[in-house]
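Handoff note, outgoing to incoming analyst
You'll be picking up this chain. Sequence as last confirmed:
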Amino acid sequence: MNTMGATLARLRPSLKPFRSWFIAGVAAILSSTVVEIALPVILGKGVDVAIAPRGDTRLLFQLGVVYLILILLKTVLESLQAYCFQCAGEGVTHTLRLGLFSKILGLPVPYFDKNPTGRLLTRVVNDIKSLSELFTASFSVIALDVMIIFGTFFAMFWVHWRLAAAVLFSFPAVFLVIHVFGRRLALAYREIRTRLSEINAFLGENIGAIGTIQRLGAESERSEKFNRILESHNAAQMASLELFARVQPLTNTLNGLTMGILLGLGGYWVIQGEISLGMLVAFFGYIRNLFQPIRDLIEKYNTFLSSATSAERVVGILEEPGEMSESEVPAISFLMPGDCGIRFDKVSFTYPLRQQPALKNVSFEVVAGSSTAVVGATGSGKSTLVRLLLKFYEANSGSIFFGHRDIREWNRQDLRRQIGVIHQDIYLFQGTLRENLTLGRSGVGDDTLREKCQHAQLWPLLENRGGLDFQVLEGGTNLSVGERQLLSFARILITDPKVLILDEATANIDRELERRLIRAIREVLANRTSIVIAHRLATIAACDQILVLDKAELVETGTYDGLLRAKGIFKNFHEIYSQN
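Most recent structure output, in case you need it:
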């Protein structure tokens, strides 16, 4: 419970805007509890005053009317508290889901290296849905039941404390059962959530790679693995159901024991004249008020434990350290073109959970307004340079400078606005060409979008296919690889970055599209700082300098012709790729 209390405390900012709804719901619960406690009193009064002595039908009718009014009032109050908690719960769910997605957007890249997409989908969809069930339904039922239990305890001891003590002698065993099985159920529900995350992660990975699976004929192997994951999830579910199935019969047994004690001892005391028949009837009503809420609590207990586990997992993401806050580093509103130089000074870096370094003591400088090519074998560290420059990762040693300032002094968002990157692997979103170009940014007119598409050599390919209203399917599956590359190039041009980085941007483009793109690149790169990572020599031949990486080290630096004359690694690289 302490853990749950700490979790709810962490969620308090999301609950606070809906405090008035919760207060109204609690007020309705308190009022409903008072009515619930009063109902057995009315029944007992009817037996003692209206039936047993003289059969006063007039008084009996009056008590019946009062009882009916209380029942109607109880119905209204329960409807009111359900409505209040439903409104509050839906609002909290909306706020949490939006906040969780915003938090995920701000998490550092290394976090996603360790957490698969399916696991994050489980947090945003399933875990938030579980929390929604807690706030919209379970919380109000649990709060009402707890209030009724405590109120009934007070009323029973107030009416006749000796009978209450005798009848409730076995009642602590109920709490013991719930406590013992509750701890085991909590562990079972955590296991269920873990297995559910595995299911979502597996589905997210395999559905996205369905083409590869079918080409390799690996359908049966993938199905078998998915079946093993499902079996582990089913085993966890059955374990929780087995535990839950034991709680209800034990509670019913204790309920029967309590009723037997009340009937035997209470009936004896009625015969002896120590208590009235109406008091005995009232106590039967109170026992019902005790055990019916307990049954409700047991039925909602699995939901509560599931929600508690979900809350812990949601809070776990909310408490993850994000990228540096905008307030920690002053933003730079304007950067002169002459301040766009880049310098790496003895930079070394090793990715988390890897042993081999990605960069070792790398130093070089890209003069503002110049173009630099980076070549090397796969795994030599080319793309790592880009990730470090954009502050997706922090170098283990050494310093990186941009605009004559250490990038540690740069605001991340402002730094990334200055640097545009076009990768080999492009992701496009389902929507129009316009939406894929702007990504929701406002203030970019259609004329500007068409102009940027012209510069990227994309407009002639899509103008007659709908233009800016052309519908792009998820992942850009209705576009060729080359068209996707050109679209990504146009998307970067809209932001007009001071520095442009091409990371194997022409690797998958055919010769015709490559020629179109190279014309656009030369136009856009004029007087602009640029870094080109490529295998195709046509892309890097005009660069001012070329850096050659080999096994995470910078081994050669020079011009295209100079490196060919040096007859080193670049010469071998040239001979291999000039044949392609």
